[in-house]
Q: What sequence folds into this?
């Protein structure tokens, strides 16, 4: 009978029978800074057999996009179902419970509908795990390591030298230990391996209970620093790692559009690194960072494999929806830059894989545009619980039945910038062919800059063609499409000092 119900549910578009079938569990896997550079995305240089295995048994989204390419706002958008302007979270230092305090998050919504929700690792941004969303308080692993003792000692000595050189205490406090390191520890002693251990222990415990579960496991690598066990470094030959082929700034783009790479320059061995408009990393530095990133991806792939294996061992795979997502992309030398924090394709595009037991699209890939904000209504529909009224995304369930379909004409991202005294917000719209970016002065609400990239002829987004005379009508049409889909940008209010002036 159980098998029959599953077949009928799949044929009915995953409608869950509350009379005869237990609601599906959800295994929700988040990976920080993971760009879609994996075997399943056609990148042979990366060794990711476990994520590739998941892709072969689920639906892979080739064109999925985050809503703002930095950790906190991206995760807030996905987990609240609100776009950044609605959540009023655009930066790392704003807590959504201060801006939209009554919002019911995705795991909180599941909890309110009979699920046991548990979180391990990085799901919400680090400082704010949002315990209101979970059935048990979030706890980081108590016994885990990252840098070696020797690296920590070098870091301490480096800080003391900075102090002796008269550097400010703020600068000394900000600098971190080295950006890469090979460590000789087992996975279980590494922070990401310890997170996997926590999630596995919870999975075994929850498998014995009577409630469906929403189990979230958030891995920190491949976020900097690239400190991972030796065996993952040894998977790659540094000399054979290809460097970025478009290590140039986009021609014709406004200077404020590119990130500054401050994140990388916070590490003691990269303090003197020039920004992308001022210079480039050496080839040795580029190879070191790409090697570290690749090794970090393979570390996380191994942890994902452990979770998938345990689902099988506990006989839960046929009862569990698995979602794997990255919170944003990451530059590895593209546009002469590193890290994230821009509106470009390389930062906005993310990996997304969804496996629903019995889904007719499993094993396929879709080129339909999709957004991380779509996960809230999608998972609600799959679980057979009401979709929260505030959710601003679209259900992408139809793609899980038929990956050849399309559910939306565009995906939207944004990023905030300072340009002198101007506070800007760049709104990006990715259509089937184009990426259009409109930069708005947040005080005057006037457009002050435009970018247009032709993905068909320029997939690397190397040339901004917005200034070409024959693109004038297209810019007008794309701007109309952008603002027909999004509400008008919120006006930045004057500060108390400005009001006095």
A:
């Amino acid at each position: 009978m159980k098998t029959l119900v599953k077949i009928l549910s799949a044929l009915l578009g995953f409608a869950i029978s509350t009379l005869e079938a237990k609601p599906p569990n959800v295994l929700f896997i988040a990976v920080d800074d993971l760009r879609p550079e994996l075997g399943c995305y056609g990148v042979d240089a990366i060794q990711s057999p476990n994520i590739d295995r998941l892709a072969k048994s689920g639906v892979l989204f080739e064109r999925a996009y985050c809503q703002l390419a930095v950790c906190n706002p991206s995760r807030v958008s996905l987990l609240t179902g609100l776009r950044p302007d609605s959540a009023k979270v655009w930066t790392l230092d704003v807590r959504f419970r201060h801006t939209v305090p009554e919002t019911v998050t995705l795991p909180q919504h599941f909890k309110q509908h009979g699920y046991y929700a548990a979180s391990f690792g990085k799901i919400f941004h680090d400082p704010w795990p949002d315990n209101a969303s979970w059935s048990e308080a979030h706890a980081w692993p108590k016994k885990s390591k990252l840098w070696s003792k020797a690296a920590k000692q070098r870091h301490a000595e480096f800080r003391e030298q900075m102090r002796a050189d008269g550097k400010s205490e703020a600068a000394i406090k900000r600098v971190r230990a080295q950006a890469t390191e090979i460590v000789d520890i087992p996975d279980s002693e590494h922070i990401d391996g310890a997170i996997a251990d926590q999630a596995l222990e919870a999975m075994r415990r929850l498998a014995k209970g009577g409630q469906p579960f929403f189990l979230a496991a958030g891995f920190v690598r491949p976020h900097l620093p690239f400190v991972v066990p030796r065996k993952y470094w040894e998977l790659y030959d540094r000399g054979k790692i290809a460097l970025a082929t478009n290590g140039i700034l986009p021609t014709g783009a406004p200077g404020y559009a590119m990130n500054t790479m401050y994140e990388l320059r916070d590490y003691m061995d990269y303090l003197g690194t020039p920004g992308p408009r001022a210079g480039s990393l050496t080839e040795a530095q580029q190879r070191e960072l790409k090697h570290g990133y690749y090794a970090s991806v393979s570390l996380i792939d191994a942890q994902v494999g452990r979770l998938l294996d345990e689902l099988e061992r506990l006989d839960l795979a046929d009862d569990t929806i698995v979602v794997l997502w990255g919170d944003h992309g990451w530059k590895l030398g593209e546009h002469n830059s590193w890290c994230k924090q821009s509106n470009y394709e390389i930062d906005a595009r993310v990996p997304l894989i969804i496996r629903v037991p019995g889904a007719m699209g499993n094993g396929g890939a879709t080129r339909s545009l999709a957004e991380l904000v779509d996960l809230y209504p999608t998972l609600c529909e799959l679980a057979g619980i009401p979709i929260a009224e505030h959710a601003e995304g679209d259900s992408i369930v139809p793609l899980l039945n038929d990956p050849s379909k399309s559910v939306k004409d565009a995906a939207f991202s944004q990023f905030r910038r300072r340009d002198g005294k101007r506070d800007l917000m760049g709104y990006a719209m990715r259509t089937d062919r184009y990426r259009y970016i409109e930069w708005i002065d947040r005080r005057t609400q006037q457009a002050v800059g435009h970018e247009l990239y032709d993905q068909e002829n320029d997939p690397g987004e190397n040339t901004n063609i917005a200034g070409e005379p024959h693109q004038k009508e297209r810019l007008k049409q794309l701007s109309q499409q952008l603002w027909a889909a999004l509400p008008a940008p919120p006006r930045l209010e004057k500060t108390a000092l400005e009001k006095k002036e």
About this structure: The chain is about 30% helix and 20% strand. The first strand starts at residue 25 and ends at 31. Residues 283-313 form the longest helix (31 residues).
